[in-house]
Structure formats: C-alpha cells, structure tokens
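for the recovery benchmark. tokens below, seq after
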C-alpha cells in the first residue's frame, strides 16, 4: 500500500506510520513542523503543509492507495469540519481504496455537548457522507498515557497509579502499538467498509484491577488513585495549552459524571474477532517499559509533547 497518514508526527499516527513502514508499505505524511523538529519515522515521506489548505491535503493524497487519519487536538467544530472536508475531497480525487479514521476516543451514542466527542462525531459524519470507503476505529484510553511525567514518578517512587477515570469505570486499555495493529487490520482485511469498531484490550479493567496488573508487571504493590478531572486539565494546559487541554479533559469530565460508565469498556470480542487481533495483557505492556527513567534520581527524559 501507499498510505497517506494524517497525524504521523503525533504518538498515535506515528505508531501507525512505523508499523506500516515495518511491513514495507510506503507512507506519506503532512506536517507543519520544520524538518529538524520532526520525529524519526524511517521510510516516511514528509510534505510541508496544513490541513486547512485543500491543495496541501490533495498533494498528500496524490499517488496513494489508502489513508489513515487521526485528527489533531483541535476541538473547534468549524475548523474540524474544514479538515474533514479537505480530507474527504482529497481521498475521492485520489481514488482512495479505503480510509481508516481513528477517533482517538470512544463516542457516546447520544450527543453530549463535549467537543472531544462531538468534533469526532462530526468528522465521522463528514467522511461517511462523502462516499469515501471508510472504516472507523474508536479506541478507549491509551496505556502510553501512563508512561508520562505525571504518572511515571509516582508509580516508580510510591507505587501509586493516578488517573482521572473513576475507579469503577471498566476500561479496555490499549497501547499505541495495539492501535497500530488495529489500524493495519482495518486497512487490509476484506469486507469491513462502513463498519465502526470499539477497539481495545480483550478485558476491561477497573482502576483497582489496572493497578493490580501494573503491580504484576512492575513486581511491586501498586494502588489506584482517582485524579480530579479539573486538576488534570490544569496540569495538561501547561503542556498543550488551555484550549486543547479543555478538549482532552472533556472526556474525563464526562466519565466522572457517570452518564455512560461502560463507554470505555470492551466490546465482547467483536473488534478482536473482526480484525483478527490478539491484545496482550496489560502486565506484558507494563513489563516492557523502561520505568526507571522516571525515578527521582534518573536523568530527566525528553517529554516534549506531541499529539
């Protein structure tokens, strides 16, 4: 395949781009970043451009056969709709065989008023209505969020796993690598056009069960602590800016409301069967991470944010 990857400079799109390159598919990516500031993606071809400019998006899709899209952390409906329309137009002109949209979150059935969900619902609608051959994957929450400067030190030094999800919220945690494997399957397996999959781990875990899995992976006792979504949003604003932080934190404000406690849960094996996936247990992912970089006496790691 020759794949246009929207969002390849971020963690999620980057994971997909790397897996595609590993499997010898050609990757094209659009970025506003200067060349010196782009993440290392061997085998990817970068074009300078912006999703707001239709011509740039058309150039991204030229000569490609497939596409994978993760929208940036933008939650203004007008801008998001413009992005989606530019992508749809470019995909149609290129004759895209299949486009896979990663919504970056589950999407509740009913409107919520939270831009984190509603802009992704809008993106789905625009792409679906355009007639592009579409598969949608909706992940729950990423394990990689926990390998971070606001989680790592407390885990390593204190055995505390703090996150802004209610302890009782059953969540089918997935890694960026797991997302990439789901995306590759969604791009290549036959008979999936028009379908939407709530991807994630094979088993949904409460906060306490997640902490126990971390404990097994780390070889020590770990306890779970609920973070207040307001405090989480304030902390995130320092990394992403207030607008993006408010958008991301909306997911956790909604979960804290209790309106849909099973939104992030597993889908009874539907996606793993249709996409032929075998998600690894959480403790295996935990055991593979270099947690000691977060120890208080470790050299400070690079934590520059990417979407």
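predicted aa per position
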């Amino acid at each position: 395949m020759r794949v246009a990857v929207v969002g390849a400079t971020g963690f999620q799109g980057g994971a997909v781009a790397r897996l595609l390159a590993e499997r010898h598919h050609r990757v094209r990516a659009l970025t506003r970043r200067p060349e010196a500031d782009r993440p290392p993606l061997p085998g990817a071809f970068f074009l300078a451009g912006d999703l707001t400019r239709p011509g740039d998006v058309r150039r991204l899709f030229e000569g490609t056969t497939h596409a994978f899209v993760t929208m940036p952390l933008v939650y203004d409906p007008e801008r998001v709709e413009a992005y989606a329309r530019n992508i749809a137009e470019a995909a149609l002109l290129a004759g895209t065989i299949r486009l896979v949209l990663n919504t970056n979150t589950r999407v509740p059935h009913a409107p919520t008023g939270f831009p984190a969900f509603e802009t992704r619902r809008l993106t789905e609608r625009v792409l679906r209505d355009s007639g592009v051959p579409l598969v949608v994957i909706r992940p729950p929450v990423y394990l990689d969020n926990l390998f971070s400067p606001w989680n790592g030190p407390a885990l390593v030094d204190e055995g505390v796993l703090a996150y802004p999800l209610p302890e009782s919220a059953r969540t089918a945690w997935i890694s960026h690598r797991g997302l990439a494997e789901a995306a590759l399957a969604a791009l290549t397996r036959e008979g999936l056009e028009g379908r939407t999959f709530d991807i994630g781990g094979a088993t949904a875990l409460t906060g306490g069960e997640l902490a126990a899995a971390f404990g097994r992976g780390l070889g020590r006792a770990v306890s779970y602590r609920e973070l207040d979504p307001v405090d989480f949003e304030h902390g995130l604003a320092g990394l992403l800016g207030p607008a993006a932080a408010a958008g991301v934190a909306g997911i956790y404000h909604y979960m804290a409301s209790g309106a849909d406690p099973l939104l992030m849960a597993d889908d009874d094996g539907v996606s793993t069967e249709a996409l032929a996936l075998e998600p690894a247990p959480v403790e295996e992912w935990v055991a593979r991470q270099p947690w000691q970089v977060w120890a208080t006496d470790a050299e400070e790691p690079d934590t520059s944010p990417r979407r």
